[in-house]
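C-alpha coordinates as discussed.
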Protein backbone atom coordinates (compact mmCIF):
# COMPACT_ATOMS: atom_id res chain seq x y z
CA UNK A 1 0.00 0.00 0.00
CA UNK A 2 1.34 3.47 -0.86
CA UNK A 3 2.04 6.24 1.62
CA UNK A 4 0.90 9.84 1.14
CA UNK A 5 3.55 11.97 -0.53
CA UNK A 6 4.95 14.86 1.50
CA UNK A 7 7.50 17.51 0.61
CA UNK A 8 10.25 15.64 2.45
CA UNK A 9 9.75 12.70 0.05
CA UNK A 10 10.43 14.71 -3.10
CA UNK A 11 14.28 14.57 -2.91
CA UNK A 12 14.08 10.77 -2.60
CA UNK A 13 11.99 10.59 -5.77
CA UNK A 14 14.26 13.05 -7.58
CA UNK A 15 17.51 11.22 -6.83
CA UNK A 16 16.26 7.61 -6.98
CA UNK A 17 14.94 5.43 -9.79
CA UNK A 18 11.17 5.95 -9.89
CA UNK A 19 8.39 5.62 -12.44
CA UNK A 20 5.00 7.32 -12.24
CA UNK A 21 1.53 5.87 -12.83
CA UNK A 22 -1.82 7.60 -12.90
CA UNK A 23 -3.92 6.69 -9.86
CA UNK A 24 -7.11 5.25 -11.27
CA UNK A 25 -10.29 5.69 -9.27
CA UNK A 26 -11.11 1.98 -9.38
CA UNK A 27 -11.44 -1.00 -7.06
CA UNK A 28 -8.31 -2.96 -6.20
CA UNK A 29 -8.29 -6.72 -6.78
CA UNK A 30 -5.70 -9.44 -7.03
CA UNK A 31 -6.24 -11.62 -10.10
CA UNK A 32 -5.54 -15.32 -9.57
CA UNK A 33 -5.26 -17.31 -12.79
CA UNK A 34 -5.75 -21.06 -12.35
CA UNK A 35 -5.93 -23.80 -14.93
CA UNK A 36 -9.63 -24.22 -14.22
CA UNK A 37 -10.56 -20.52 -14.14
CA UNK A 38 -9.80 -16.95 -13.11
CA UNK A 39 -10.69 -15.30 -9.78
CA UNK A 40 -10.67 -11.73 -8.50
CA UNK A 41 -9.76 -11.35 -4.81
CA UNK A 42 -10.69 -8.22 -2.84
CA UNK A 43 -9.09 -6.78 0.29
CA UNK A 44 -11.44 -8.85 2.49
CA UNK A 45 -10.22 -12.05 0.79
CA UNK A 46 -13.54 -12.57 -0.97
CA UNK A 47 -13.19 -14.57 -4.20
CA UNK A 48 -15.17 -13.70 -7.35
CA UNK A 49 -15.05 -15.92 -10.45
CA UNK A 50 -14.49 -14.00 -13.69
CA UNK A 51 -17.13 -14.99 -16.24
CA UNK A 52 -16.90 -15.58 -19.09
CA UNK A 53 -13.47 -17.13 -18.59
CA UNK A 54 -10.73 -14.75 -19.90
CA UNK A 55 -8.85 -17.87 -21.08
CA UNK A 56 -5.33 -16.63 -20.26
CA UNK A 57 -2.81 -18.70 -22.22
CA UNK A 58 0.96 -19.06 -22.26
CA UNK A 59 2.73 -17.47 -25.27
CA UNK A 60 3.65 -20.86 -26.75
CA UNK A 61 3.03 -22.50 -30.11
CA UNK A 62 0.55 -24.89 -28.53
CA UNK A 63 -2.31 -23.17 -26.64
CA UNK A 64 -1.69 -23.93 -22.97
CA UNK A 65 -3.68 -22.41 -20.11
CA UNK A 66 -1.74 -20.58 -17.44
CA UNK A 67 -1.86 -21.85 -13.87
CA UNK A 68 -0.89 -20.18 -10.57
CA UNK A 69 -0.46 -16.72 -12.09
CA UNK A 70 -1.07 -13.85 -9.64
CA UNK A 71 -1.46 -10.21 -10.66
CA UNK A 72 -2.13 -7.00 -8.73
CA UNK A 73 -4.37 -4.42 -10.32
CA UNK A 74 -7.69 -2.62 -10.28
CA UNK A 75 -11.06 -2.91 -11.93
CA UNK A 76 -11.98 0.31 -13.73
CA UNK A 77 -14.69 1.51 -16.09
CA UNK A 78 -13.40 2.72 -19.46
CA UNK A 79 -15.39 5.92 -20.01
CA UNK A 80 -15.03 5.70 -23.80
CA UNK A 81 -16.01 2.07 -24.37
CA UNK A 82 -18.20 1.85 -21.24
CA UNK A 83 -16.61 -1.55 -20.58
CA UNK A 84 -14.98 -2.82 -17.40
CA UNK A 85 -11.22 -3.39 -17.63
CA UNK A 86 -8.68 -4.95 -15.30
CA UNK A 87 -5.58 -2.74 -15.27
CA UNK A 88 -2.46 -4.60 -14.13
CA UNK A 89 0.01 -2.54 -12.11
CA UNK A 90 2.17 -5.35 -10.68
CA UNK A 91 3.10 -8.98 -11.21
CA UNK A 92 3.59 -11.48 -8.38
CA UNK A 93 3.72 -14.83 -10.18
CA UNK A 94 3.65 -16.07 -13.78
CA UNK A 95 2.53 -19.68 -14.25
CA UNK A 96 3.83 -20.61 -10.80
CA UNK A 97 7.13 -18.73 -11.14
CA UNK A 98 7.20 -16.45 -8.09
CA UNK A 99 10.72 -15.19 -8.84
CA UNK A 100 9.12 -12.54 -11.04
CA UNK A 101 8.11 -10.73 -7.83
CA UNK A 102 11.82 -10.13 -7.09
CA UNK A 103 12.48 -8.43 -10.44
CA UNK A 104 12.62 -4.65 -10.69
CA UNK A 105 9.35 -2.85 -11.31
CA UNK A 106 9.87 -2.18 -15.02
CA UNK A 107 10.60 -5.87 -15.60
CA UNK A 108 7.50 -6.91 -13.65
CA UNK A 109 5.31 -4.76 -15.89
CA UNK A 110 7.09 -6.02 -19.02
CA UNK A 111 6.42 -9.60 -17.87
CA UNK A 112 2.73 -8.78 -17.49
CA UNK A 113 2.75 -7.39 -21.03
CA UNK A 114 4.65 -10.31 -22.56
CA UNK A 115 2.93 -13.17 -20.74
CA UNK A 116 -0.59 -11.84 -20.08
CA UNK A 117 -1.89 -9.02 -22.23
CA UNK A 118 0.06 -9.37 -25.49
CA UNK A 119 -0.84 -13.05 -26.15
CA UNK A 120 -4.53 -12.23 -25.61
CA UNK A 121 -4.42 -9.75 -28.51
CA UNK A 122 -4.11 -12.74 -30.87
CA UNK A 123 -6.46 -15.13 -29.08
CA UNK A 124 -9.94 -15.52 -30.52
CA UNK A 125 -11.02 -17.07 -27.21
CA UNK A 126 -10.43 -13.74 -25.43
CA UNK A 127 -13.23 -12.01 -27.33
CA UNK A 128 -16.18 -11.04 -25.17
CA UNK A 129 -14.40 -11.59 -21.85
CA UNK A 130 -13.00 -9.14 -19.31
CA UNK A 131 -10.32 -6.99 -20.91
CA UNK A 132 -6.93 -7.18 -19.17
CA UNK A 133 -4.39 -4.41 -19.83
CA UNK A 134 -1.16 -3.13 -18.30
CA UNK A 135 -1.31 0.37 -16.83
CA UNK A 136 0.64 3.20 -18.46
CA UNK A 137 3.82 4.14 -16.66
CA UNK A 138 5.98 7.22 -17.16
CA UNK A 139 9.58 8.09 -16.44
CA UNK A 140 10.15 11.05 -14.11
CA UNK A 141 11.06 13.42 -16.94
CA UNK A 142 7.71 12.54 -18.60
CA UNK A 143 5.63 13.79 -15.67
CA UNK A 144 4.36 16.74 -17.72
CA UNK A 145 3.05 14.31 -20.35
CA UNK A 146 1.20 12.43 -17.62
CA UNK A 147 -0.42 15.53 -16.15
CA UNK A 148 -1.49 16.71 -19.61
CA UNK A 149 -3.58 13.56 -19.88
CA UNK A 150 -5.41 14.31 -16.62
CA UNK A 151 -8.21 16.82 -17.18
CA UNK A 152 -11.63 17.57 -15.75
CA UNK A 153 -14.87 16.48 -17.34
CA UNK A 154 -18.06 18.52 -17.46
CA UNK A 155 -19.12 17.31 -14.01
CA UNK A 156 -15.81 18.36 -12.42
CA UNK A 157 -14.41 14.83 -12.13
CA UNK A 158 -10.75 14.23 -12.92
CA UNK A 159 -10.27 11.93 -15.92
CA UNK A 160 -7.14 10.25 -17.27
CA UNK A 161 -7.22 9.64 -21.03
CA UNK A 162 -4.51 8.18 -23.26
CA UNK A 163 -5.59 7.82 -26.87
CA UNK A 164 -2.18 6.79 -28.18
CA UNK A 165 -2.17 3.12 -27.14
CA UNK A 166 -2.06 0.56 -29.93
CA UNK A 167 -4.58 -1.60 -28.07
CA UNK A 168 -7.13 1.20 -27.91
CA UNK A 169 -7.70 4.20 -25.63
CA UNK A 170 -7.57 4.09 -21.87
CA UNK A 171 -9.95 6.51 -20.20
CA UNK A 172 -10.99 6.33 -16.56
CA UNK A 173 -11.66 8.47 -13.51
CA UNK A 174 -8.50 9.61 -11.77
CA UNK A 175 -7.58 10.85 -8.31
CA UNK A 176 -3.85 11.50 -8.51
CA UNK A 177 -0.72 9.55 -9.33
CA UNK A 178 1.57 6.89 -7.86
CA UNK A 179 5.36 7.15 -7.55
CA UNK A 180 6.76 3.60 -7.69
CA UNK A 181 10.39 2.75 -6.78
CA UNK A 182 11.91 0.66 -9.56
CA UNK A 183 14.69 -1.19 -7.73
CA UNK A 184 12.40 -2.73 -5.13
CA UNK A 185 10.73 -6.13 -5.24
CA UNK A 186 6.98 -6.55 -4.85
CA UNK A 187 5.87 -5.37 -1.41
CA UNK A 188 3.09 -7.22 0.41
CA UNK A 189 2.47 -4.65 3.14
CA UNK A 190 2.68 -0.86 3.37
CA UNK A 191 5.80 0.42 1.64
CA UNK A 192 7.24 3.77 2.73
CA UNK A 193 9.00 4.20 -0.62
CA UNK A 194 5.78 3.71 -2.61
CA UNK A 195 4.05 7.10 -2.64
CA UNK A 196 0.71 8.49 -3.75
CA UNK A 197 -0.05 12.10 -4.63
CA UNK A 198 -3.48 13.65 -4.91
CA UNK A 199 -4.64 17.20 -5.56
CA UNK A 200 -4.74 18.75 -2.06
CA UNK A 201 -8.54 18.88 -1.84
CA UNK A 202 -8.75 15.14 -2.61
CA UNK A 203 -6.49 14.01 0.24
CA UNK A 204 -8.70 11.81 2.37
CA UNK A 205 -8.77 9.43 5.34
CA UNK A 206 -10.96 6.39 5.96
CA UNK A 207 -12.43 6.65 9.48
CA UNK A 208 -14.79 4.45 11.44
CA UNK A 209 -18.06 6.31 12.01
CA UNK A 210 -19.50 5.92 15.51
CA UNK A 211 -23.07 7.06 16.17
CA UNK A 212 -24.69 7.82 19.52
CA UNK A 213 -28.42 8.48 19.85
CA UNK A 214 -29.10 11.62 21.88
CA UNK A 215 -32.72 10.82 22.74
CA UNK A 216 -34.38 13.63 20.80
CA UNK A 217 -34.22 12.00 17.37
CA UNK A 218 -30.74 13.28 16.58
CA UNK A 219 -27.36 11.59 16.74
CA UNK A 220 -23.85 12.44 17.86
CA UNK A 221 -21.18 11.57 15.28
CA UNK A 222 -17.63 10.60 16.23
CA UNK A 223 -14.80 9.46 13.96
CA UNK A 224 -12.15 6.90 14.94
CA UNK A 225 -8.84 5.76 13.46
CA UNK A 226 -7.21 2.34 13.80
CA UNK A 227 -4.99 1.86 16.85
CA UNK A 228 -2.65 -1.02 17.62
CA UNK A 229 -5.46 -3.27 18.81
CA UNK A 230 -8.76 -1.48 18.19
CA UNK A 231 -10.23 1.72 16.73
CA UNK A 232 -9.45 4.86 18.76
CA UNK A 233 -11.90 7.76 18.92
CA UNK A 234 -10.50 10.96 17.43
CA UNK A 235 -13.29 13.43 18.19
CA UNK A 236 -16.86 14.44 17.48
CA UNK A 237 -17.41 15.91 14.03
CA UNK A 238 -20.16 18.35 13.09
CA UNK A 239 -21.44 16.81 9.87
CA UNK A 240 -24.32 18.52 8.00
CA UNK A 241 -27.73 18.13 9.63
CA UNK A 242 -29.26 16.48 6.55
CA UNK A 243 -26.46 13.92 6.45
CA UNK A 244 -26.87 13.09 10.13
CA UNK A 245 -30.62 12.70 9.65
CA UNK A 246 -29.99 10.21 6.85
CA UNK A 247 -27.60 8.25 9.06
CA UNK A 248 -30.12 8.29 11.92
CA UNK A 249 -32.67 6.56 9.67
CA UNK A 250 -30.15 3.79 8.99
CA UNK A 251 -28.55 3.73 12.43
CA UNK A 252 -27.88 -0.01 12.70
CA UNK A 253 -26.28 -0.26 9.27
CA UNK A 254 -24.22 2.95 9.41
CA UNK A 255 -22.96 2.76 13.00
CA UNK A 256 -19.44 1.34 12.90
CA UNK A 257 -19.13 1.65 9.12
CA UNK A 258 -16.05 3.04 7.35
CA UNK A 259 -16.40 6.48 5.79
CA UNK A 260 -14.02 8.49 3.64
CA UNK A 261 -13.47 12.08 4.79
CA UNK A 262 -11.39 15.02 3.61
CA UNK A 263 -10.18 17.85 5.81
CA UNK A 264 -11.61 21.29 5.03
CA UNK A 265 -8.85 23.75 5.89
CA UNK A 266 -11.09 26.80 5.76
CA UNK A 267 -13.82 25.34 7.98
CA UNK A 268 -11.36 23.50 10.21
CA UNK A 269 -13.50 20.40 10.01
CA UNK A 270 -13.67 16.96 8.42
CA UNK A 271 -16.11 16.61 5.54
CA UNK A 272 -17.85 13.38 4.56
CA UNK A 273 -17.22 12.10 1.03
CA UNK A 274 -18.77 8.63 0.95
CA UNK A 275 -19.15 5.30 2.70
CA UNK A 276 -16.47 2.68 2.05
CA UNK A 277 -18.41 -0.56 1.90
CA UNK A 278 -15.31 -2.29 0.53
CA UNK A 279 -13.36 -1.75 3.78
CA UNK A 280 -13.88 -3.19 7.26
CA UNK A 281 -11.35 -1.15 9.24
CA UNK A 282 -10.26 2.51 9.32
CA UNK A 283 -6.84 3.90 8.46
CA UNK A 284 -4.08 3.84 11.06
CA UNK A 285 -3.03 6.96 12.95
CA UNK A 286 0.09 7.26 10.78
CA UNK A 287 -2.12 7.63 7.70
CA UNK A 288 -4.16 10.34 9.41
CA UNK A 289 -0.98 12.26 10.30
CA UNK A 290 0.51 11.86 6.82
CA UNK A 291 -2.70 13.03 5.17
CA UNK A 292 -2.96 16.11 7.39
CA UNK A 293 0.70 16.88 6.68
CA UNK A 294 0.12 16.59 2.94
CA UNK A 295 -3.00 18.77 3.16
CA UNK A 296 -1.09 21.43 5.09
CA UNK A 297 1.90 21.38 2.72
CA UNK A 298 -0.32 21.57 -0.38
CA UNK A 299 2.21 20.15 -2.84
CA UNK A 300 0.86 21.21 -6.24
CA UNK A 301 1.57 19.49 -9.50
CA UNK A 302 3.57 22.37 -10.97
CA UNK A 303 6.06 21.89 -8.11
CA UNK A 304 6.40 18.21 -8.98
CA UNK A 305 6.87 19.09 -12.64
CA UNK A 306 9.55 21.69 -11.86
CA UNK A 307 11.52 19.31 -9.64
CA UNK A 308 11.22 16.08 -11.61
CA UNK A 309 11.69 17.55 -15.07
CA UNK A 310 15.22 18.42 -13.95
CA UNK A 311 15.91 14.82 -12.84
CA UNK A 312 18.53 12.85 -14.80
CA UNK A 313 17.03 11.15 -17.84
CA UNK A 314 16.84 7.38 -17.42
CA UNK A 315 17.91 5.62 -20.63
CA UNK A 316 15.46 2.76 -20.05
CA UNK A 317 12.24 4.43 -21.09
CA UNK A 318 8.86 2.85 -21.64
CA UNK A 319 8.40 1.26 -25.06
CA UNK A 320 4.97 2.85 -25.45
CA UNK A 321 4.84 6.13 -27.32
CA UNK A 322 2.80 8.76 -25.56
CA UNK A 323 1.42 11.79 -27.37
CA UNK A 324 -0.07 14.75 -25.58
CA UNK A 325 -3.80 14.42 -25.03
CA UNK A 326 -5.38 17.75 -24.31
CA UNK A 327 -8.25 20.00 -25.24
CA UNK A 328 -9.42 23.43 -24.23
CA UNK A 329 -11.73 23.37 -21.23
CA UNK A 330 -12.71 26.88 -20.18
CA UNK A 331 -14.39 25.59 -17.02
CA UNK A 332 -11.24 23.80 -15.85
CA UNK A 333 -8.92 24.97 -13.09
CA UNK A 334 -5.95 24.33 -15.38
CA UNK A 335 -4.48 26.33 -18.23
CA UNK A 336 -5.26 25.31 -21.80
CA UNK A 337 -2.08 23.22 -21.91
CA UNK A 338 -3.05 21.61 -18.60
CA UNK A 339 0.34 22.51 -17.18
CA UNK A 340 -0.47 25.08 -14.50
CA UNK A 341 -3.31 25.95 -12.17
CA UNK A 342 -5.28 29.00 -13.21
CA UNK A 343 -6.38 29.41 -9.63
CA UNK A 344 -6.61 27.43 -6.42
CA UNK A 345 -10.02 27.19 -4.80
CA UNK A 346 -10.47 26.77 -1.04
CA UNK A 347 -11.51 23.24 -0.23
CA UNK A 348 -14.80 24.39 1.25
CA UNK A 349 -15.97 25.77 -2.12
CA UNK A 350 -15.65 22.36 -3.77
CA UNK A 351 -19.07 20.63 -3.88
CA UNK A 352 -19.47 17.53 -1.76
CA UNK A 353 -19.20 14.51 -4.10
CA UNK A 354 -22.27 12.33 -4.47
CA UNK A 355 -21.70 9.03 -2.59
CA UNK A 356 -20.56 6.39 -5.06
CA UNK A 357 -21.07 2.64 -5.20
CA UNK A 358 -17.74 1.18 -4.01
CA UNK A 359 -18.21 -1.76 -6.34
CA UNK A 360 -17.93 0.72 -9.21
CA UNK A 361 -15.51 3.31 -7.86
CA UNK A 362 -13.00 2.22 -5.25
CA UNK A 363 -10.26 4.83 -4.63
CA UNK A 364 -8.58 1.73 -3.42
CA UNK A 365 -4.88 2.56 -3.63
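Sequence:
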Amino acid sequence: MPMTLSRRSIPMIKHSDYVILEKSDGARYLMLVLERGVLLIDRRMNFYPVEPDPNILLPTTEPTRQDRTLLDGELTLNLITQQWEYLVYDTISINGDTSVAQLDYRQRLINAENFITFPRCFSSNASGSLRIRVKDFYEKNQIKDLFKKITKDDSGEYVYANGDRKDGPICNHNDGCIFAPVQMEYQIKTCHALLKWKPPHLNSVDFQLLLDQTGNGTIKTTIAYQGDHRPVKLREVMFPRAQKAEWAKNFQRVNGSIVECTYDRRAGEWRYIREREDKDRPNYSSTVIDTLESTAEEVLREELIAVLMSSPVNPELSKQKRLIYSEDRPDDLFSNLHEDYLCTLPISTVPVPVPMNPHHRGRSR
